[in-house]
Design brief:
Ubiquitin-like (UB roll); alpha+beta; single chain; HisE; phosphoribosyl-ATP diphosphatase activity; four-stranded mixed beta sheet; two-stranded antiparallel sheet; 20% strand
Length: 205
């Protein structure tokens, strides 16, 4: 670690730009700054810690919001003047409530959102932790496991009907409903996306 701290080129104020990227989807989540101390804390604790230029103090991502960034990898660029972190984003990265800070679209060439499942899962977690009046997700959590299981069963039946009807649009619609309710069940029972990926990886080695 000492070698890294010596290699990184901090500017005349002792800070370096740091980019946080979702380690699964590679989506850029946010850009912030680090000084030597925050970089050292990040590496030691395996959780993102930044340096606030406005407050001139350290801030651990998620210490007030609960939206942590668990460190999965850390790199510096060819000029050693920028840090890239691969992180597991718990909740949302942006203070506005968006998953990524980069939600202001200027141009997009018909690109499918590759991170949509992670976004949905994180939004469900956010609804559980920060209930909103009128939220259907909160309604399901309030009603409890039996209600959630009933909805999963109902949506499974709808998927079967859509398939039997040979109607692709209907099938896609109902499968999305099933995925959503299954994710609510996952959050309710503490199952993570990584749990599913680990099991699928084990099956297909």
């Amino acid at each position: 670690m000492e070698n890294l701290l010596n290699e990184v080129k901090f500017d005349d104020k002792g800070i370096v730009v740091a980019v946080a990227q979702d380690y699964i989807t590679n989506e850029v989540l946010m850009v912030a700054y680090m000084n030597k101390e925050s970089l050292e804390i990040t590496l030691n604790e395996k959780r993102a810690c930044y340096y606030s230029r406005s407050r001139q103090s350290l801030w651990r991502k998620g210490e007030t919001s609960g939206h942590w960034q668990n460190l999965k990898g850390l790199y510096y660029d060819c000029d050693a003047d920028a840090i890239l972190m691969k992180v597991e984003q718990i909740g949302n990265a942006c203070h506005t409530g968006a998953y990524s800070c980069f939600f202001n679209k200027v141009f997009e060439d018909n690109v499918t959102d590759q991170a949509i499942l992670n976004r949905l899962y994180n939004q469900i977690i956010d609804r559980r932790d920060n209930p909103k009046e009128g939220s259907y997700t909160n309604y399901l959590f309030d009603k409890g496991l039996d209600k959630i299981l009933k909805k999963v069963g109902e949506e499974t039946s709808e998927v079967i009907i859509g398939a039997k009807n040979k109607n692709k649009d209907e099938l896609v619609y109902e499968m999305c409903d099933l995925i959503y309710h299954s994710m609510v069940l996952m959050v309710s029972e503490g199952v993570t996306m990584d749990d599913l990926k680990a099991e699928l990886t084990k099956r297909h080695k």
